[in-house]
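Table S2 (text version). Query chain:
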Amino acid sequence: LKYYRTAANELSSLGKVVEGFNTKYGFIVEKLGSGGFGTVWKIKTPESILRAYKIFHPNDLDDDKKMDRFYRGFEAMSQLDHSHIVKIYNFSECPYGFTMDLIDGVNSRQIVSQISTD
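Corresponding structure-token output:
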């Protein structure tokens, strides 16, 4: 059990990023939000394009089923091609996640929260 905890802690450190961190796909500008599967970060690519980078929660890297669902979500989204659907770009193994178009504005949770308080 001791070795499992040590290994799990080491594994989770592979997916941890913070503002200012440089990844393969760009420089982490700021945290945009977090959900059940991961955290979405605003990044600036080497070409100076602002994108979103959804990174799987590093504490769940030992959950194969959840990782598989996350990857299947990426695959399904990457097959969609419509002007009203966010375009998906790259998948990365470390940190485990993918890049997509950045849509500036409020997110759906903020909209629902605002509606429920009105």
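Notes on Table S2: DSSP finds three helices and six strands in the chain. The chain has a mean pLDDT of 85.
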